[in-house]
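Section handout 9: paired folding examples.
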Amino acid sequence: MPQEIEVWYIIPAIRRELAKSMVELGLAQKQIADKMGITEAAVSQYISNKRAKEVAFSNAVLDEIKSSTKKIIYDEKLLVPEMVRLTKLTGVKQVMCDIHKKQDVNLPDGCDVCFGEDMTKIK
């Protein structure tokens, strides 16, 4: 199911990139864990590529994640809205679709179930 792919692959990969962006901006692992509502151990695994390593995003998506990082650092209450926004990006949906196609050999030709009508057009 696409929702499972989102939970098991996409959200962790977005968290990984958020954590890496926060490190680049000088935050300590404890600060990152607090801002993201996850453990320091999870942050460590994200920044060392031990978690969510199967997913690679386009540069455009990475730019959007960096933009979200700055917003979340400024106001951690924006974490959930930014995560929702990022999961709706076209480039993120395409990654989800590619994983779905690899995992489900019974998909019909032309399947676009991973793409909803309400998406931001970032490739």
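Moving on to protein 2 of 2.
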Amino acid sequence: MNGAPENGYFTYVAEDESGEVIGFASGGEERPGDPVYKGDLKAIYILQSYQGKVIGRCLMQAFAKKLHLLGIDTMLVWVLADNPACQFYAALGGKPVHEKEMEFGDKSLIEVAYGWMDTGDIGRS
């Protein structure tokens, strides 16, 4: 685990057998002030060749456990609505709880927030 605890953010890193980084999950306390969801997964990334091999699930569970240890039992992750990762978050028990439109250049994109009411339940289904 890396990160500066004083800013409320932390990062978990997954490595292969040779010590090469193959993925990470990063976030911490929710910043915008959501009244319900207090944890915020800012980013999760797994190298494509390692996707579908439970690494993402393990990173999510480790991340959620750390939030729980910090006394944060609810969590959000924002993702573009057409991102295939939406299926991953739903499979881990995330529910679409917010939606917003964002401008990216000359395009209008929809972001969806997947939320968990109990970080202890992530990936246990």
